[in-house]
Each structure stands twice: as C-alpha cells, then as structure tokens.
Specification:
With 260 residues, this protein is mainly alpha-helical. Helix content is 68%, strand content 3%. Strand 1 and strand 2 form a beta hairpin. Helix 2 crosses helix 3, helix 2 crosses helix 9 and helix 6 runs antiparallel to helix 8.
Length: 260
C-alpha cells in the first residue's frame, strides 16, 4: 500500500509540474482537477451504458407493472418473470451503479494522500501546497480558525460552497424532470408488496445533490476539489446523456405539462 501511495503521489506531482507554467502556485490544485477529469473520462463509456440501461428500464415499466399485477399472489414467479424480462431485453438492473462505484477508489486515494503526514516513509511534500492560501490538506474548520468564514482561506470554501449549491440546484431540477418524464414502478419485496420507505426515499432523491455540501465541509480540500469537479461533471454529463428525456418533458403536452 505504501508503494502504491508513493506512486500515486508521484503521479499527482508530475501532473502539477506539467501544469505549473499555467497555474503557478495553484498547479497542484489544477492537477487534482485534471486527474478527476481523466477519471471521469475513463468511466464515461460506462456512464453512457448506464444511461442506455436507465432508458431501457424506463421503457419496461409498463410491462413490469403488468407482471406484478399478474403474479401478485406468487412473489417468486413475479420476481422470476421480471428477471426474465430484463434478460430478454438485455437490461441490467445494476448497470447504473458501476460508474459511481469505480470512482470511489480515486476519491479515497486523494483523501488518504492529503490526510497522511508521510508517504513511503518520507514527509508528504504535497501537504505544503495550497489553493489561494488554503492548504490542500486542510479542512473547512481549519480555514475558520484562520480568519473565519470570510478570512483568506475561508473565501476558498465560500467559492466551493457556492459552486456546489449551483450544481446541486441544477441536478435537482434535472432529477425532478427525469422523474416526471419516467415515473418508476415502486420496488417490491419478496412478498410482492412495495418496500416500506421506498416512496419517501424516491421523494428525497432530488435533494441528495445538496448532501455534497457536507462532504466538501469535512474532507481535505484536495478531496473536496475532487468531489466538486466530479459532481459538476456528473450534472453536465447527465444533462447531455438524457437530453432526449428532458426535451420530451419540456415539450408542450409532456409529462411536466400533464402534471400541471
């Protein structure tokens, strides 16, 4: 693990050296943003596949509802019929999880890298780097202790929080439009009945984007940059991949118009 972290630290350092002529003292922060973009670019094919799967699952909702009504008194037969339908249509219920799962290791690597005082038995030189005076290994409470919310370091977090709020609001609207255009059949348990609490969870889904504010506030600044960058990428990527669904929703007579 130590050798792996040393190699990762060298990668971040090399990217920072590459960007130094353009970004000067903020080159390491820029390297983290570039690293995040490269990770997202690598998993983009999976995101496209997940979008295709989501659209396919949406198209199957009427058939799934029919199967649940038909086999409501035989939960095992119902679940088997739903699985057979997914298999016949070559749709995986779990395909949408892969892009998020594959990004988690990158986040934890950055978190560990900028939370460790030493890497490979040597002092972690990356901790000396900052973004506009805010240490990349520091957290929001450290910035508050060095001048308060509007201190030199505090302004960095004010900017990040403002960006997160803008992205979260954008994602909230996208999620509401997507849910209006493609209402999903509630998940059923082994007995064929809706899973308790799933309705409330579905209503809460559009608000989950705002939870990023908490993450940015408690993790090292380097990891916060990763979170903000990947969240913004996700919002723009989702707007592009599902643009046909949103266009149908916004059209006269679409789902949003009908709901109104």
């Amino acid at each position: 693990m130590s050798a792996f972290m040393s190699a990762f630290a060298s990668l971040v350092g090399s990217l920072a050296d590459l960007l130094q002529p353009l970004f000067q003292n903020a080159s390491t922060a820029a390297a983290i943003i570039l690293f995040t973009a490269l990770v997202r670019l690598a998993v983009h094919p999976l995101s496209r596949a997940a979008a295709r799967g989501q659209k396919a699952r949406s198209r199957l909702q009427p058939q799934i509802a029919e199967l649940r009504e038909k086999h409501g008194k035989n939960p095992e037969r119902m679940q088997k019929a739903i699985m057979e339908l997914h298999a016949a249509e070559k749709v995986s219920p779990l395909s949408g999880c892969l892009p998020s799962l594959l990004q988690m290791p990158a986040f934890f690597l950055l978190y560990h890298l900028f939370s460790s005082g030493s890497i490979g038995g040597e002092p972690n030189s990356l901790l000396r780097h900052d973004l506009l005076g805010a240490p990349l290994g520091g957290r929001w409470h450290d910035a508050l202790a060095q001048g308060g919310v509007f201190g030199p370091q505090g302004w960095v977090y004010v900017g990040l929080f403002a960006l997160v709020l803008a992205v979260a609001t954008f994602s909230y609207r996208l999620t509401k439009r997507q849910m209006a255009a493609n209402p999903m059949t509630p998940a059923a348990g082994p007995d064929g009945q809706p899973v308790p609490g799933m309705g409330a969870m579905t209503k809460m889904m559009p608000l989950l984007s705002f939870a990023t504010l908490i993450t940015v506030a408690v993790v090292p600044l380097a990891a916060a940059l990763y979170v903000v960058t990947t969240t913004a990428w996700s919002a723009l990527e989702r707007a592009w991949l599902y643009r046909d669904m949103y266009r149908d929703t916004a059209a006269p007579g679409g789902a949003m118009a009908k709901a109104a």
